[in-house]
Amino acid sequence: MVFSSITFLFYFLPLFLVLYFITPFKNTVLLIASLLFYAWGEAGYVLLLLVSIGLNYLFGILIDKNFNLTKKTVLVSGIVINLVLLGYYKYFNFLGENISFFKAESQVHLPLGISFFTFQAISYLFDVYRKEARVEKNIFNLALYISMFPQLIAGPIVRFKTVAEQIHTRFHTLDNISKGVRIFIIGLAQKALIANTVAVSADAIFALNQASLTTSTAWLGAFSYSLQIYFDFAGYSNMAIGLGLIMGFSFPQNFNYPYISKSITEFWRRWHMSLSSWFRDYLYIPLGGNRVSPFRTYINLMVVFLLCGLWHGAAWTFIIWGAYHGFFLILERLGFKKLLDTSWRLFSHTYTLFVVVIGWVIFRAEDFNHLVYFLKTMFGLGQGQTIEFVPSLYLTSSLSVTLIFATVFSMPIYHFLFRQMNMKEYLQIDIKVTILKIMFEMYYISIFLLSLLNIASGSYNPFIYFRF
Q: What span, in angstroms and rounded, lies between the C-alpha atoms of 264 and 258?
């Protein structure tokens, strides 16, 4: 079940909210709803989720015991078991394709959201070990943290220490509920109105064979996919954050307009921020971070991004994508970022977008051969010359308008207007404030209704992160 579906929006969510707010047993309602939400798409793997919860509950209790000589051993054991479970379900097929003794007669199914709930479980063990969070002695509360449905299948990755107090005691205010509804609507519109529209052209173009793909069409596909993956994932994250606020939880921001970045270093401070900070705190810093020699720092960066690529998927293209970003981060640490910081801003933005868009082609490619011919075609080295597949075939009026809006809304226009509404000079003129507020309310109502109409019409509704 995805958030941008009729089942979720018209049945699951309204029923859940009614039960959640009329009963005093809010954690119980939320936990049952979360397990039902997961069972809707992965009924056969609810047991795996429960096993993960039970194991991490046990390891957390053991880490909390005052046996200093064994704490680290228990932590490492817990991390290894989590990674073994993740590795088996996510990478066994990949290993079978590349290493002969891993071959099996049947494919191993990838359980929904396993990458996200495994990383949350590992962060819980780390936080208890570092005494940054108290161990959770109520297994049902830990189950709620790991399985909470708003962020279960696509993040953001929430640290236990961030929501531990809110699991026990949280407040539901009209202001937070109103803010949560607005954020949810924004995310729904990002997904339903933008991501789903550009996905049509992106998927069609990436499905073209080498003979049919032309240079201009390949660039349109790359641009469309770059917008699709941003608005798909940011939209889902915003819906999760909005739902969390409605229920009294503060989930971390996951995206901060990454396409306005002036370097790849800045891009990774703005893109999938909960994952970036997870790798920083639980892998990069324990490896030594930048406190070691420059050479070791570069090795640490490359290791982190190779694993970041693997986290996203079990394929060579994801490994290449991770190494690709690791290379540019190392390049910028070697001094290129200083040049970017002092250069013309247009140059910095252009460089960053160019690197990121090429990276998304690597990320989207089905395999290495697909990647090679798509990149060759983008740079005029391909063989596709057929007029049947020129950009005008895909660049419909609907897509053209969506691309314009997507480009605009990938920049902080909304926040600029919101700040304008709260500027002191506007506060002195009530009528302007009132008009702006009415415009904002109409904006939310309009995009919500348009999103519902789009979903109800049965429009194309893929979900990129089901792959991960």
A: 9
